[in-house]
Amino acid sequence: MKKFMPCMLVLLAFSSLFARTQPGKSSFAARVTNFGNEFGFGRMISPFAMVLLDASLEFVSQSQESQIASATLKGDVQSNFSLLAYPEYRMYILPRNRVVPYFGLYGLVGFGSTSAEKPVDDCVIAVNGRTLALGAGATLGAEFFLNDFISLSAHTRFAQYSFTNDKTETASCLSIVENIQQTHRFNLQFEPALYVRLYF
User: Which of 42, 123, 150, 194 has the most beta carbons within 10 angstroms of its beta carbon?
Assistant: First the structure.
């Protein structure tokens, strides 16, 4: 038994040299489903663990106007901005395999803003909103290594808790009204997605 233990330790250390999830490797990932919605950076800290930071960014702006004869009437103006970040600690199972299952724990930090202006008669109603989101959850997936540098991941987030604070301010010609809404949410909904990851 005493001889067996050192042999096992040497075998484990040797096998980690051939793990597809190499310590010290960095990676860049992009979401394939709904492409462009989410990107991420990761770094292996051991053959069995990676720390990651995924993020999604969106900005939308639109305006309306009408042309009547030589007159131009301005319509609604709207803009929306959102930034979501997902820091994660991921643990790999069977890192030597071509298909490597994993599970992880992640946090959620998000910020959003909205603004809108709507002309009504001789007045403009302006609505400005701010959103803060905090949360945490679990992830589950499997990474298929095409080679030592490229992989495809079938990934899902689930068991998510989130807290959202929405603050809205509506200004008209006569008054300013401020509304604050706070929401606590927990769900077990799976959010499957496919990612491609490049290691370097």
Answer: 42
